[in-house]
Amino acid sequence: MKEWDPQLKLLAVLAATKELLLRSDREGWPDEDPQEVAEEVGQVIAHVLEPAKNSLPQHARALFAATGPIQELALSNGWHEEYMALASEFDTLQHLLFGEE
Fold this sequence. Notes:
Layout: H1 6-22, H2 34-49, H3 58-64, H4 69-77, H5 80-98
């Protein structure tokens, strides 16, 4: 099987995350609005698609950080397992593509 291009994998991770956010509700304790966080992920996708970009926007790492907005929404909406897998892949890919940790 042919290995995916890392940039395409990153876009797939971001798109999957956005889809989960769009299906989420603002329930319980998270201060974040899932729709607003999904829009922020959409901005990261647009940034990655720009050919001249050689980095991620600063807020991208914060979105996926432990106790960040995506994790809080994942916990309150029952998709924390998926979040953990997506966040791990995001971390690996951002390091591979941009040398960022």
